[in-house]
């Protein structure tokens, strides 16, 4: 180990002042002060025993020994399954049938840690901790122990060595995981640093999910110049914070194959949950205003998972006395998606979420004295008769309503008259009738529009903001580039589609017939956008653009059309140009429909299960299904990391536009960014969305103009050419590494 690397190690130990420090060789097997019988022992059993006796004074020693045996003997050959089982034991305790001192038996939970009082635990940092397993002799730089259990491994690299990077530290951790897996059965988090950069993740995280931790206290980002390792160690491993991260900031999400993906809360998620809990306790108090606030975390940065962490935290908050959590969305597909995410993490809640199937089922679910995680669309809170009041369902104060995308137009308390003169209200009014003492918290991926008073009236103001600039800097998302292709279509100005200021968004299942005031306007615009000559021009340009895009950066594409008719006809136009795309299933239309729709649409209309199968295929990077054509499906709450291109040919604005284009900002391998290709002239709408974004104090731009990016590239390239003037650069152009 180089001198400089030893300095990094020493600095790491110094940045953990609350952790007792022990030098690994001082407790190694064979020395006088040994705490391990062999180098294959990764748990410090004597320290574990002492902690269990301290935490469980009424439990006989025989039961403590049984608990130690259960902890130190993994039951599976799969590392991640063993790690999952241990995590549940660590958080929930060891469940045993215990023979008591008086001869009776009882079922007891042996606590492994004191989650309320950090001082009741032992925090130990050991550097140079040698482990030998199956002939592999490895020595991680720093291992952190909680009550004798190795919960964290930190690998450090020499910053003075140009060849040693933080990524090398990650690769070293993967080697340890493969060669000395016993150490990682008990692992909560792994961290790596080269003395300059630092990253943290879980044993199942790929490199692109090893993330920086940029705060120490609260969500204020540490200033540039402060060592990332210093921030990470102090921010994560403060004893109180570390206990909360382990207990509330780690989930094992079930994957479609029946396995697990271990996920760690990012710093923005963890601190958002801490702030949201505090605001929720104030809102639900006797004198609280029932407004817990709005969490704005930019699309793609893990908003759904933040909601999972938040729900898990408030459920266990003793002040809330086993609350009922109601999760609201405004569309069935979003309800299904979010419900699926919560169900995949149900162990985190120690109860199973339930989805309301109808208005009557929802009312039955809410008629309870405590507890429960209930999913519903807002529409199920509608009264029995239009213009009527919603019946009272529950008057408890410990009911928390979590609203996904909390700035929809359906929220609000104000009354309004419909075309028949009947009085109706915003959904918040019906919710208040049903749950008069419930508190509301909103989660959104886009900023609240400045003219939107409803959201603030219902939820309050922002309590946590994670904007685009921070998300891209943290590599939680990739940048989005904007490219206008209107000029490529060579349309006459007289026939180019125009966006009207009064044109409302039309959503799935709500075409012309249900929006009488827009019928003529919608039909006129749809006729221009859907003209056969224009569809053919769009199809021709799209094929050229996509094939060029694929040659440079392989991925998947989403085409957004204005109506189902246009989606089907655009599919046909593309199939005429590239018959093999249709024959091989490279492209598909995904939309809802019925038997009354035209015959030529029927092959594109699938059942709910059929659409779910299409979604599974589209998310699979190896599936030949590359191009999907949609009208409204999959535009929100649908994550496909390998999706890198969106073709927009539909009028959109505001948060709906922002949510749609964010489909391409997910991190995936070496994907440098996503591209939004505009065929309808949405630049002005993007500028208006940017104005709302800036007014909400968001930093960074939602999209970057690709023409500007190219101009900057050419400028910098010209500077490089000047610097290397006179040098032979032929190998750079033609050679191989």
Fold blueprint:
Layout: H1 3-14, E1 20-23, H2 45-55, H3 61-72, H4 79-92, E2 94-99, E3 105-110, E4 123-127, E5 131-133, E6 136-138, E7 142-146, E8 149-156, H5 166-179, E9 189-193, E10 198-201, H6 228-236, H7 239-248, E11 250-254, E12 260-264, H8 267-284, E13 291-297, H9 303-315, E14 324-329, H10 332-344, E15 354-355, H11 359-366, E16 373-377, E17 399-404, E18 415-417, E19 423-425, H12 427-434, E20 439-444, H13 453-459, E21 462-466, H14 468-473, E22 480-484, H15 486-489, H16 519-529, H17 532-552, E23 556-561, H18 564-577, H19 579-583, E24 587-589, H20 608-619, E25 627-630, E26 643-649, H21 654-661, E27 674-678, H22 683-695, E28 704-705, H23 706-723, H24 730-734
Parallel strand pairs: 1-4, 8-9, 13-20, 13-21, 14-16, 14-17, 15-16, 17-20, 22-27, 22-28, 23-25, 23-26, 24-25, 26-27
Antiparallel strand pairs: 2-3, 4-7, 5-6, 7-8, 9-10, 11-12, 18-19
Provide key terms for this protein.
single chain, 737 residues, alpha/beta, tt1808, chain A, Rossmann fold, seven-stranded parallel β-sheet, 24 helices, 28 strands, 36% helix, 18% strand, globular
């Amino acid at each position: 180990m180089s001198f400089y690397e030893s300095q990094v190690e020493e600095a790491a130990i110094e940045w953990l002042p609350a952790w007792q420090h022990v030098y690994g060789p001082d407790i190694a097997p064979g020395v006088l002060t040994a705490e391990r019988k062999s180098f294959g022992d990764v748990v410090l059993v004597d320290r574990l025993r002492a902690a269990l006796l301290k935490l469980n004074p009424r439990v006989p020693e025989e039961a403590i020994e049984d608990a130690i045996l259960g902890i130190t003997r993994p039951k599976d050959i799969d590392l991640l399954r063993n790690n999952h089982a241990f995590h549940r034991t660590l958080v929930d305790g060891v469940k045993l049938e215990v023979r008591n001192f008086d001869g009776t038996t009882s079922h007891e939970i042996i606590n492994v840690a004191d989650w309320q009082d950090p001082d009741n635990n032992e925090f130990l940092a050991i550097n140079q901790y040698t482990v030998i397993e199956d002939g592999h002799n490895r020595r991680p730089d720093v291992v952190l122990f909680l009550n004798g259990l190795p919960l964290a491994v930190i690998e450090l690299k020499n910053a003075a060595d140009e060849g040693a990077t933080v990524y090398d530290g990650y690769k070293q951790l993967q080697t340890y995981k493969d060669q000395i897996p016993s150490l990682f059965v008990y692992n909560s988090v792994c961290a790596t640093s080269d003395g300059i950069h630092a990253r943290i993740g879980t044993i199942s995280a790929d490199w692109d999910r090893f993330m920086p931790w940029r705060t120490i206290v609260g969500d204020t980002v540490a200033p540039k110049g402060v060592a990332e390792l210093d921030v990470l160690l102090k921010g994560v491993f403060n004893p109180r914070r570390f206990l909360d991260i382990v207990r509330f900031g780690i989930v094992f999400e079930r994957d479609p194959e029946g396995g697990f993906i271990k996920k760690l809360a990012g710093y923005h998620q963890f601190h958002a949950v801490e702030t949201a809990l505090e605001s929720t306790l104030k809102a639900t108090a006797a004198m609280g205003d029932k407004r817990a606030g709005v969490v704005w975390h930019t699309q793609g940065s893990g908003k759904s998972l933040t909601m999972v962490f938040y729900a898990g935290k408030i459920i266990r908050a003793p002040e809330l006395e086993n609350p009922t959590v109601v999760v609201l969305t405004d569309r069935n597909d979003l309800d299904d998606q979010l419900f699926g995410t919560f169900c995949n993490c149900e162990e985190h809640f120690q109860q199973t979420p339930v989805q309301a199937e109808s208005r009557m089922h929802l009312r039955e679910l809410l008629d309870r004295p405590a507890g429960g995680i209930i999913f519903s669309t807002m529409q199920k809170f509608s009264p029995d008769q239009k213009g009527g009041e919603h019946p009272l369902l529950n008057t408890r104060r410990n009911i928390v309503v979590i609203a996904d995308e909390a700035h929809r137009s359906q929220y609000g308390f104000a009354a309004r008259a419909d075309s028949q003169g009947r009085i109706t209200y915003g959904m918040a009014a019906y919710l208040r009738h049903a749950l008069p003492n419930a508190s509301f918290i909103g989660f959104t991926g886009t900023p609240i529009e400045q003219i939107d008073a409803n959201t603030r009236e219902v939820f309050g103001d922002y309590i946590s903001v994670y904007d685009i600039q921070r998300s891209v800097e943290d590599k939680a998302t990739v940048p989005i580039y904007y490219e206008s292709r209107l000029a490529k279509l060579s349309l006459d100005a007289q026939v180019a589609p125009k966006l009207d200021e009064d044109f409302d968004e039309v959503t799935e299942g709500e075409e012309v017939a249900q929006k009488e005031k827009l019928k003529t306007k919608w039909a006129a615009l749809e006729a221009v956008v859907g003209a056969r000559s224009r569809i053919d021009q769009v199809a021709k340009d799209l094929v050229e653009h996509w094939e060029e895009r694929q040659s440079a950066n392989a991925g998947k594409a989403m085409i957004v059309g204005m109506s189902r008719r246009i989606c089907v006809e655009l599919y046909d136009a593309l199939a005429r140009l590239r018959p093999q795309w249709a024959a091989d299933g490279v492209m598909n239309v995904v939309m809802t429909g019925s038997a009354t729709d035209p015959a030529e649409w029927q092959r594109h209309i699938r059942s709910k299960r059929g659409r779910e199968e299409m979604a599974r295929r589209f998310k699979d990077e190896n599936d030949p299904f590359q191009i999907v054509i949609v009208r409204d499906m999959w535009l929100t709450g649908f994550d496909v990391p390998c999706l890198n291109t969106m073709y927009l040919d539909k009028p959109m604005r505001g948060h709906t536009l922002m949510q749609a284009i964010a489909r391409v900002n997910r991190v995936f391998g070496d994907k440098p960014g996503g591209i939004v290709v505009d065929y309808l002239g949405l630049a002005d709408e993007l500028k208006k969305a940017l104005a709302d974004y800036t007014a909400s104090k968001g930093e960074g731009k939602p999209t970057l103009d690709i023409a500007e990016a190219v101009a900057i590239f050419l400028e910098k390239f010209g500077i490089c050419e000047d610097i290397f003037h006179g040098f032979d650069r032929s190998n750079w152009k033609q050679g191989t590494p």
